[in-house]
Structure formats: C-alpha cells, structure tokens
Design goal:
Layout lengths: L16 H11 L7 E2 L1 H8 L3 H13 L3 E3 L6 E3 L3
Antiparallel strand pairs: 1-3, 2-3
Length: about 80
C-alpha cells in the first residue's frame, strides 16, 4: 500500500469503503492539480496501484475522467 495519510479501513457508514475510495480519488483533482498520475494518486491516497488503476479506469470509462495528451495522467471530464 502507498504511504499516503488517508485510510479507508473505518468508513463512517458500514459497507461504503469502495465508495469512499472513489470519492477520495475524485476529490484529489483540484484547480491547483487538475492532472494527476496513477502513482501519485495511489501514494497520496494510500491505495495499492492496482486498486487506484481499477478506480481510474472505471471513472474514465464512465466519462468522469479522461487521459491527458499522450496518456500523461488523468483529468476531470471527457476529452
């Protein structure tokens, strides 16, 4: 697991751990940091890279995220 400070082991509402992870990924995109990479998100959020990749892939497939030019990171919204 990454070295980030966030933890998803004790969600506020039982059974929402996966949702909390998705929300945390979405909240990691800010005006100051509109483009993010898989390794930095995984590290910052304390997720395994495989978990972060699954979340990012789903969000991209559903149009919430898109890849930057030449696959350089992810950004909010479709291209």
């Amino acid at each position: 697991m990454g070295t980030g400070s966030k933890t998803f082991d004790d969600p506020t509402i039982p059974g929402t751990k996966a949702l909390a992870r998705v929300v945390a990924v979405m909240q990691a995109f800010t005006d100051e940091r509109p483009r993010r990479t898989l390794p930095e998100l995984a590290d910052e959020l304390g997720l395994r890279k495989t978990t972060a990749h699954r979340i990012l892939s789903l969000l991209e497939q559903k149009g919430f995220l898109s890849r930057g030019p030449h696959g350089a990171g992810y950004q909010l919204g479709p291209e």
